[in-house]
Design a protein that fits this description.
The protein is an alpha/beta fold. It has two domains: 146 residues, Rossmann fold, CATH 3.40.50.1220; 81 residues, SIR2/SIRT2 'Small Domain' (2-Layer Sandwich), CATH 3.30.1600. Helix content is 35%, strand content 18%. The chain contains ten helices and nine strands. The strands form two sheets. Strands 3-2-1-7-8-9 form a six-stranded parallel sheet, with helices on both faces. Helix 6 runs parallel beside helix 10. The chain is globular, with a radius of gyration of 18 Å. The mean pLDDT is 96. Bound molecules: adenosine-5-diphosphoribose. Adenosine-5-diphosphoribose binds next to helix 1.
Length: 241
C-alpha cells in the first residue's frame, strides 16, 4: 500500500441494491415490515418452522435468478474503483445478492453470507445453489438428510471473515459506508474501529443520515446510482479528501 494510494474499504448495505429492484429491510415497505425477522432470520425461527424459512429465501433466490435484476451504476462504479485505484479496494457487503460480483468486483467479502449458496450443517460443505431448497434435500456431499440451509448469517450468528475485515479496517486510508442504516452490528461499528485504530478518512454515502452519520467526517446524501459514481470519479481524479 503506497502512502499516496492507501487502501480503501467500502461497506455496503441494502440501499446500494435498492435501485436494482431489491428491497431494503427498514425503509418504508421494507422486508421487515412484511415479515417478522424472528421467524425467518434466526436459528430459532429455522428450528421452529424450517419450511417457512426455506420459502422466504426461495422467493428471494428466485427473484435474483429469474427476474431481470441487474447491477446498477453504483455497483459498477465500485468495480471501476477496484480496477483503477492504485491501492487495494475491499468491498465488505452486508448484502446476500450477487450484484457486486456481476458488476465486476472481485475483492469482496459477504459478511452475512450469500443467497446463491447453501450449506450442510452436518458436514459444513458450502455450495452454489440457484433453485428452491428443501430441508429434506440430501446433502450432495455427505448425503445427510435434513441439514441443508441457506448459506446466510442469521441474527445471533457470527458474521463471516471478521478477522480479515478488522485487519482491513485498521489499515485503510478511506472507509466508505454506502446504503446502510447503521442498525446492525458488527457492521454498524466498523466506523468506530476505523476511528479508534487508524486515521482513515470516513464518508457515508446514503439516501438519508444513518444512525451513525455523525461519526463520519464526510456525508453525501442522494440515491446510490448518483452519489457513488460521482464520489468514485472524484477519488480517481482528485484522490482522498
Ligand atoms: N441509495 C442509497 N441509499 C439508499 C437507497 C438508495 N437508492 N434506498 C435506501 N437507501 C438507504 C436507506 O436510507 C437506509 O439507510 O439504505 C439503507 C438501508 O438500510 P436497511 O434496510 O436497514 O439495510 P441494511 O443497513 O443493509 O441492513 C443491515 O440488517 O436485517 C439485517 O441482514 C440484514 O444485512 C442486513 C442488515
Amino acid at each position: 500500500m503506497s502512502a499516496a494510494h492507501p487502501s480503501i474499504v467500502v461497506l455496503t448495505g441494502a440501499g446500494i441494491s435498492k435501485e436494482s429492484g431489491l428491497d431494503t429491510f427498514r425503509c418504508a415497505g421494507g422486508i421487515w415490515d412484511r415479515v417478522n425477522l424472528e421467524d425467518v432470520a434466526t436459528p430459532e425461527g429455522f428450528a421452529r418452522d424450517p419450511a417457512l424459512v426455506q420459502r422466504f429465501y426461495d422467493d428471494r433466490r428466485r427473484q435474483l435468478v429469474e427476474s431481470d435484476v441487474q447491477p446498477n451504476a453504483a455497483h459498477v462504479a465500485l468495480a471501476r474503483l477496484e480496477r483503477e485505484w492504485p491501492g487495494e479496494v475491499l468491498i465488505v457487503t452486508q448484502n446476500i445478492d450477487d450484484l457486486h460480483e456481476r458488476a465486476g468486483s472481485t475483492n469482496l467479502i459477504h459478511m452475512h453470507g450469500e443467497l446463491l449458496k447453501v450449506r450442510c450443517d452436518a458436514c459444513g460443505t458450502i455450495q452454489a445453489w440457484r433453485t428452491d431448497l428443501h430441508v429434506e434435500t440430501p446433502c450432495p456431499a455427505c448425503a445427510h438428510v435434513g441439514a441443508m440451509r441457506p448459506h446466510v448469517v442469521w441474527f445471533g450468528e457470527m458474521p463471516l471473515q471478521m478477522e480479515r475485515i478488522h485487519e482491513a479496517l485498521s489499515g485503510c486510508g478511506l472507509f466508505l459506508s454506502v446504503g446502510t442504516s447503521g442498525n446492525v452490528y458488527p457492521a454498524a461499528g466498523f466506523v468506530h474501529v476505523v476511528l479508534d485504530l487508524g486515521d482513515a478518512h470516513t464518508a457515508e454515502l446514503n439516501l438519508e443520515p444513518s444512525l451513525g452519520a455523525s461519526l463520519f467526517e464526510e456525508q453525501v446524501y442522494g440515491p446510490a446510482t448518483e452519489v457513488v459514481p460521482a464520489y468514485v470519479e472524484r477519488l480517481l481524479t482528485k484522490g482522498i479528501p
